[in-house]
Design brief:
The complex is a heterodimer. Chain A has one domain. Chain A is globular, with a radius of gyration of 21 Å. Chain A is of the alpha/beta class. Chain B folds into two domains: 168 residues, Response regulator (Rossmann fold), CATH 3.40.50; 123 residues, no CATH class. Classes of the chains: A alpha/beta, B alpha/beta. Chain A: InterPro entries: Gly/sarc/bet_Rdtase_B_asu/bsu, Gly_reductase_pB_sua/b.
């Protein structure tokens, strides 16, 4: 499958009477995006704001971060099965607005939404301090259940991102990259000497606000399957989860999955990037066994030489990670896993809830329990009302001078387990 | 700014007194002298630090007169009041390595003066002391002096100035059981691809997290006589009396709660809730028995299926809680349950 990605660099976002993109500046009609967001009657209100890199702004509680894209050629549309009709994506031509994101925020759903600081020490840890953020703070209608609220906010974010992506349809991209994978036979013939490598992505599917959707299907209800790695670039996988902010994959990370991009970088040079395998992280033992068995089986059937496995979340999914690693290694396939650590605030504890000697090649996104002090910032988009309840915060979080004492856990994307960041630990 | 004051410890060989035949050389303080490898340190420090004294001691003397040598050397160091203490590097010299580790750890622990040493990873002193004192990994012989000093000197300066010390991979010290965050040059996914390519090619690679020896607990044999057994409930699902009176954290719990359920037959929305931040709390808050099944156990108590339900339950939040904390809670809870004559425990999670 061949997908041409056109990148359009956004230099600023401004509110305006009419929505358009001109000379790298995104002009947004507040009226239009509000109407798009409020198409869902479960949402009562939405307010929009712009957070720029370096500004003294804190966004919280953050739910999702989304990069606007538009499909300009080929089958399907962005977010198939969710916003666009179901159709296989990953071929043709897609434009992405680089340097910006749509960030959804609002009253808390579970305990686990995150913080994005646009400046200061917190900004060093979140990748979304470097993007121009169009933030939408959504308010729910009275009496709707938290999970309905979560869904309404999630979909509103996608609608707004797609609305903004559409503004780029007729533009000429600043940069273009072509991503192409081969069919199985074609790949073997074309690259007979190169090791056959796949990416095994574990999708958060613990349920109860820990969900991921693939073409609109709840990932709890999938068995492991294969994707062309270009499918994610059109939004085949989206986040629906509220696990700890530091190591959940916002939709932005799915769209820009770094393992996919870095394997493409080596494709045809040092390795043959065969495909992406997706599996889940269900909480029942039978599901864990079935999914890890199937993942290893698919790796074997594809005659792979090596895989990279990425995790999402921590604790319970550590067992899925280790089961996948053990079973894939047992097939004689070289495995590298990407995780993060909960080594305690002092760094002295065992980092994962499970371990095995087969996991001899580990990449870590850092210790999520590390404490940081986030100084008071001038402006809060959203609310600090729930800050002590976000996972990684405590009753002692809010200091008298307005600074926050928190674990990295609270910071959106800080210890991402697809290897999105440079943070690590030893 | 005043220069950082350093006291340097070396053996008889590096003081050019002699080899094995002089290994019984007793501890000696040379105030104002920079000796042997000290010159390399001094060059590396430039104007930031100076070696105010060198202590020389024979390797056999140190190890055969451990207590006396240690006490003498500690007294010498104390008198000099340095900002930082450096021992070695010892490379692969076994007795020298043990001496460096012993004295560096003692200076740090007993005098409160930060210390750094260096040696080859297979030196017996490494395993003994790498978790006690910063220990730079060096080559296995003195040809590696330059490289060793290039890492030990900057680390000594940081310690002397009280500056934060980075991760082992950055500073060059041996992993010491304390995980420290730092920023790599490449993002994680690119590091994963690099590591996989090395692994596929059969080339050496270094994992970023060596797997620990996992603590697995074998389950006890089944309880034979349930009808006379005292059963307790323990949960990591965060069920607490409404309002979370002991403020158990929603994640990374620092403590557990102990609550009396004498007379309680059912947990209701008005009386109990969950403090757990790792799952949607709606269903647990509606009916906490879903996580801590007191209602069912009361029925079983009445029906004579179990002897009795223990009047206390123990609870904490498993979400993101460090294994070391969980282990400490479990040891304490276990002792209390045993003291109360509990025969079996039902552990519920979420």
């Amino acid at each position: 499958m061949k997908l041409e990605m056109g990148y359009i660099h956004i230099k600023d976002i401004r509110f305006s009477e009419e929505s358009r993109i001109q000379d790298g500046i995104l002009y947004v009609s507040e009226k239009a995006v509000r109407e798009t967001a409020l198409e869902d009657e479960k949402l009562k209100s939405v307010s929009f704001d712009i957070a720029r890199p370096g500004a003294s702004v804190r966004i919280t509680p953050v739910k999702d971060v989304i990069e606007p894209r538009v499909k300009v050629e080929g089958r399907g549309g962005i977010f198939p099965g969710i916003i666009s009709k179901t159709d296989t994506v990953g071929e043709g031509k897609t434009y992405a607005l680089k340097g910006m994101a749509v960030v959804t925020a609002g009253k808390i759903v579970g305990f686990q939404e995150g913080v994005i600081d646009m400046t200061g020490p917190g900004a060093e840890y979140t990748p979304f301090s470097k993007t121009l953020n169009l933030v939408m703070v959504c308010g729910a209608q009275e009496g709707i259940e938290p999970h309905e609220y979560e869904k309404a906010v999630r979909l509103a974010g996608f609608r707004v991102a797609v609305y903004i992506g559409e503004l780029a349809r007729t533009l000429t991209p600043d940069e273009t990259t072509v991503y192409e994978t081969c069919g199985l036979k074609e790949g073997i013939e074309k690259y007979p000497e190169l090791p056959r490598v796949a990416y095994v992505q574990m999708l958060q599917s613990q349920g109860l606000l820990h969900d991921t959707y693939v073409y609109g299907v709840d990932a709890k209800r999938i068995v492991p399957t294969i994707l062309s790695p270009t499918e994610i670039m059109d939004g085949a996988i989206v986040s629906g989860n509220c696990v700890s902010a530091c190591d959940k994959n916002p939709t932005y990370v799915h769209l820009n999955n770094p393992v996919v991009h870095d394997l493409f970088e080596q494709h045809g040079k040092t390795l043959n990037f065969v495909c992406q395998i997706i599996t889940n992280e269900n909480v029942y033992l039978a599901d864990k066994q079935r999914s890890s068995d199937w993942t290893a089986k698919l790796c074997r059937m594809l005659d792979l030489d090596g895989v990279i496995v990425s995790q999402e979340g921590f604790g319970n999914p550590d067992t899925d990670l280790i089961m996948n690693c053990k079973k894939i290694e047992a097939e004689g396939i070289k495995t590298v896993i990407i995780t993060d650590e909960y080594a305690g605030r002092d760094g002295k504890s065992q980092s994962l809830a499970d371990a095995d000697t087969a996991a001899d090649a580990v990449i870590t996104g850092g210790n999520a329990n590390q404490v940081v002090i986030l100084p008071k910032l001038d402006k809060v988009i959203g609310t600090l009302d729930y800050i002590t309840k976000i996972a990684g915060a405590s009753e002692q979080t809010l200091h008298e001078d307005g600074s926050l004492e928190v674990e990295l856990q609270v910071i959106t994307g800080a210890t991402n387990e697809t290897g999105f960041n440079k943070l690590s630990a030893r | 700014m005043a220069k950082i004051k350093v006291v340097h410890y070396i053996n008889q060989f590096f003081a050019q007194i002699g080899g094995e035949e002089k290994a019984d050389y007793p501890a000696e303080l040379r105030v104002g002298e920079t000796v042997g490898p000290g010159l390399a340190f001094a060059a590396n420090f430039k104007d930031e630090a100076e070696i105010i004294a060198t202590i020389v001691c024979g390797d056999s003397y140190f190890n055969e007169n451990l207590e006396k040598a240690k006490a003498d050397i500690l007294a010498m160091v104390k008198e000099q009041k340095p900002d930082v203490f450096i021992a070695g590097p010892a490379f692969n010299a076994g007795r020298y390595g043990v001496a460096c580790g012993t004295i560096a750890a003692a200076v740090q622990e007993e005098l409160g003066i930060p210390a750094v040493t260096g040696m080859y990873v297979e030196n017996p002193g490494a395993d003994m002391f790498k978790n006690h004192v910063y220990m730079i990994a060096t080559k296995n012989n003195a040809a590696g002096m330059r490289g060793a000093v290039a890492k030990m000197a900057p680390l000594a300066l940081k310690l002397g100035k009280g500056e934060p010390v980075g991760a082992s991979a950055e500073e060059g010290y041996m992993p010491n059981g304390i995980r420290v965050n730092f920023f790599e040059k490449k993002r994680g996914s690119a590091r994963a691809v690099d590591m996989l390519l090395k692994k596929l090619a059969g080339k050496p690679f270094e994992t970023e997290y060596p797997m620990p020896n996992f603590d697995r607990v074998a389950p006890n044999p089944a309880v034979k006589d349930l009808a006379h057994a005292k059963i307790a409930l323990v949960t990591s699902g965060g069920i607490v009396p409404k309002g979370n009176p002991d403020h158990i954290e929603s994640s990374s719990a620092s403590h557990y709660g102990e609550y009396d359920i004498t007379g309680v037959t059912d947990l209701t929305e008005d009386t109990y809730e969950t403090a757990h931040g790792g799952y949607d709390p709606v269903y647990a808050n509606q009916d906490a028995d879903r996580v801590l099944p007191i209602d069912v156990l009361r029925d079983m108590e009445k029906e004579g299926v179990i002897g009795e339900l223990h009047h206390l339950f123990y609870t904490t939040v498993g979400n993101g809680t460090a294994v070391a904390s969980a282990k400490a809670f479990a040891a304490e809870i276990g002792r209390k349950l045993k003291a109360d004559g509990v025969d079996a425990v039902i552990l519920t999670s979420t």
